[in-house]
Protein backbone atom coordinates (compact mmCIF):
# COMPACT_ATOMS: atom_id res chain seq x y z
CA UNK A 1 0.00 0.00 0.00
CA UNK A 2 1.18 3.49 -0.86
CA UNK A 3 2.31 5.46 2.13
CA UNK A 4 -0.05 8.36 2.67
CA UNK A 5 2.84 10.83 2.94
CA UNK A 6 3.78 10.15 -0.70
CA UNK A 7 0.28 10.05 -2.23
CA UNK A 8 0.12 13.71 -3.31
CA UNK A 9 3.69 13.65 -4.59
CA UNK A 10 3.00 10.54 -6.66
CA UNK A 11 -0.08 12.22 -8.18
CA UNK A 12 1.91 15.36 -9.04
CA UNK A 13 4.71 13.25 -10.58
CA UNK A 14 2.18 11.41 -12.75
CA UNK A 15 0.55 14.69 -13.81
CA UNK A 16 3.97 16.02 -14.77
CA UNK A 17 4.78 12.83 -16.67
CA UNK A 18 1.56 13.25 -18.67
CA UNK A 19 2.26 16.93 -19.39
CA UNK A 20 5.80 16.09 -20.55
CA UNK A 21 4.56 13.28 -22.78
CA UNK A 22 1.93 15.55 -24.31
CA UNK A 23 4.51 18.29 -24.90
CA UNK A 24 6.88 15.75 -26.44
CA UNK A 25 4.30 14.49 -28.93
CA UNK A 26 2.98 17.97 -29.68
CA UNK A 27 6.48 19.36 -30.22
CA UNK A 28 7.19 16.69 -32.82
CA UNK A 29 4.28 18.08 -34.84
CA UNK A 30 5.57 21.68 -34.83
CA UNK A 31 7.23 23.24 -37.88
CA UNK A 32 10.27 24.59 -36.03
CA UNK A 33 11.42 21.14 -34.96
CA UNK A 34 15.11 22.10 -34.80
CA UNK A 35 14.32 24.89 -32.34
CA UNK A 36 12.44 22.41 -30.12
CA UNK A 37 15.11 19.71 -30.15
CA UNK A 38 16.25 20.29 -26.54
CA UNK A 39 12.65 20.66 -25.39
CA UNK A 40 11.78 17.31 -26.92
CA UNK A 41 14.80 15.62 -25.34
CA UNK A 42 14.06 17.03 -21.90
CA UNK A 43 10.36 16.17 -22.17
CA UNK A 44 11.28 12.49 -22.62
CA UNK A 45 13.88 12.52 -19.86
CA UNK A 46 11.57 14.26 -17.41
CA UNK A 47 8.59 12.02 -18.20
CA UNK A 48 10.66 8.91 -17.60
CA UNK A 49 12.15 10.23 -14.36
CA UNK A 50 8.71 11.30 -13.08
CA UNK A 51 7.33 7.84 -13.85
CA UNK A 52 10.28 6.23 -12.08
CA UNK A 53 9.79 8.51 -9.06
CA UNK A 54 6.08 7.69 -8.83
CA UNK A 55 6.74 3.96 -9.09
CA UNK A 56 9.56 4.05 -6.55
CA UNK A 57 7.63 6.13 -4.03
CA UNK A 58 4.66 3.79 -4.34
CA UNK A 59 6.98 0.97 -3.25
CA UNK A 60 8.23 3.03 -0.29
CA UNK A 61 11.78 3.01 -1.64
CA UNK A 62 14.67 3.52 0.77
CA UNK A 63 16.16 5.85 -1.88
CA UNK A 64 13.31 8.38 -1.73
CA UNK A 65 15.48 11.43 -1.02
CA UNK A 66 17.84 10.72 -3.91
CA UNK A 67 15.00 9.98 -6.31
CA UNK A 68 13.07 13.08 -5.26
CA UNK A 69 16.19 15.19 -5.79
CA UNK A 70 16.75 13.73 -9.26
CA UNK A 71 13.11 14.28 -10.16
CA UNK A 72 13.22 17.90 -8.96
CA UNK A 73 16.38 18.58 -10.99
CA UNK A 74 14.90 17.02 -14.14
CA UNK A 75 11.67 18.96 -13.71
CA UNK A 76 13.52 22.24 -13.19
CA UNK A 77 15.60 21.70 -16.33
CA UNK A 78 12.52 20.80 -18.37
CA UNK A 79 10.56 23.77 -17.01
CA UNK A 80 13.41 26.14 -17.89
CA UNK A 81 13.60 24.82 -21.45
CA UNK A 82 9.84 24.66 -22.04
CA UNK A 83 9.56 28.17 -20.62
CA UNK A 84 11.62 29.40 -23.58
CA UNK A 85 8.86 28.47 -26.03
CA UNK A 86 5.49 30.08 -26.60
CA UNK A 87 3.47 26.99 -27.50
CA UNK A 88 0.56 26.19 -25.22
CA UNK A 89 1.85 22.65 -24.68
CA UNK A 90 5.25 24.02 -23.63
CA UNK A 91 3.67 26.49 -21.22
CA UNK A 92 1.51 23.76 -19.66
CA UNK A 93 4.52 21.45 -19.39
CA UNK A 94 6.66 24.14 -17.74
CA UNK A 95 3.91 24.78 -15.19
CA UNK A 96 3.51 21.06 -14.40
CA UNK A 97 7.27 20.66 -14.10
CA UNK A 98 7.59 23.59 -11.70
CA UNK A 99 4.79 22.21 -9.57
CA UNK A 100 6.42 18.77 -9.51
CA UNK A 101 9.87 20.14 -8.67
CA UNK A 102 8.39 22.14 -5.80
CA UNK A 103 6.51 19.10 -4.49
CA UNK A 104 9.58 16.85 -4.71
CA UNK A 105 11.73 19.40 -2.89
CA UNK A 106 9.14 19.75 -0.13
CA UNK A 107 8.87 15.96 0.19
CA UNK A 108 12.61 15.54 0.64
CA UNK A 109 12.23 16.69 4.24
CA UNK A 110 9.44 14.17 4.88
CA UNK A 111 11.25 11.19 3.35
Fold topology:
Layout: H1 4-28, H2 37-58, H3 64-82, H4 88-108
Describe this structure as you would to a colleague:
This protein has 111 residues and is mainly alpha-helical. It is 78% helix and 0% strand. The chain is elongated and about 45 Å long.
How many distinct beta strands? 0
> How much strand content do the residues show?
under 5%
**Secondary structure category:** mainly alpha
Q: Low-confidence segments, ≥5 residues, pLDDT <50?
A: none
Distance between the first and last residues' Cα? 16 Å
Report mean pLDDT, rounded to a whole number.
Answer: 94
Q: Rg, please?
A: 14 Å
Estimate percent helicity. over 70%
Order of helices and strands: HHHH
What is the count of helical runs? 4
Quick recap of the structure?
This protein is mainly α and 111 residues long. Helices cover 78% and strands 0% of the residues.
What descriptors fit this protein?
111 residues; 4 helices; single chain; 78% helix; mainly alpha
Amino acid sequence: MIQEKYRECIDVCLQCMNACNYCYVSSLKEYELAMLRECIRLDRECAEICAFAAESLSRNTPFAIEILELCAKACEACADECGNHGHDHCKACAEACRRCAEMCRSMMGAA
